[in-house]
Specification:
single chain, alpha/beta, five-stranded parallel sheet, two-stranded antiparallel sheet, 5 helices, about 40% helix, globular
């Protein structure tokens, strides 16, 4: 691995990728050992393939990118009812969980078949108790499905965006001790500082797992 032959990384994400994608590119560029390609689609997710078909999209993109590492982050828009077994299924119901787990499993299988390593980023704590409860439940689905696949790793980022008391805070201290805005106005998505914090942690994990020989940045 060298600047002439960098680690090929592909990020696929829903609206979280709007800030995470560019931030991952910027943080990776500091080390010069990572080449990042990313795709994101606002308002998309895995629960509504009729709106945006992520499995079809990544099947087309993955051969073009030929990644060595895939990073995925979905779920921001998936906490919604779904129609299954002839009726509308409530979020978190047994049928809903079964349907969503199937969508997650399909995506993990596609991604993990295309690259030696896949990292699935979990959802963060939010400023909404409703979204936080949904995200906590969905994280368990991601964790469970990742554990079934030897080359898929679930990255739990929950504590990364908690304050000292373990609660949500829009402003958190950076490495320099400065209080900076980490989350967007909706208290769900990342502001640029939050996305950069997450990007740094992702690259640190790649280094720890010996996929990067030198820590980027």
């Amino acid at each position: 691995m060298s600047p002439e032959d960098p680690l090929r990384v592909y990020l696929a994400a829903d609206s979280f990728g709007q800030t995470l994608g560019p931030s991952l590119v910027n943080v990776a560029a500091e080390g010069g050992l990572v080449d990042v390609e990313f795709d994101f689609e606002i308002s998309s997710g895995l629960m509504r393939p009729d709106f945006y078909d992520w499995p079809a999209h990544v099947r087309e993109r993955l051969p073009e990118v030929d990644p060595e590492v895939v990073i995925a982050m979905f779920g921001g828009n998936d906490g919604q009812e779904t129609f299954a077994e002839g009726e509308l299924q409530d979020i978190g119901s047994p049928v809903w969980i079964e349907v969503y787990a199937g969508r997650v499993a399909e995506m993990m299988d596609i991604l993990s078949a295309a690259a030696p390593e896949t990292y699935w980023i979990g959802l963060p704590i939010t400023g909404s108790s409703e979204h936080t409860d949904k995200f906590r439940m969905m994280n368990e689905i991601y964790r469970t499905e990742a554990e079934k696949r030897p080359n898929v790793t679930f990255l739990d980022i929950w504590s990364l965006f908690e304050d000292e008391s373990g609660a949500y805070a829009r402003y958190l201290r950076n490495d320099a001790g400065e209080l900076v805005m980490m989350r967007a106005a909706d208290h769900i998505h990342f502001d640029w500082a939050g996305a950069e914090r997450l990007a740094g942690v992702v690259l640190e994990r790649l280094t720890e797992d010996r996929l990067l020989t030198v820590a980027a940045g």
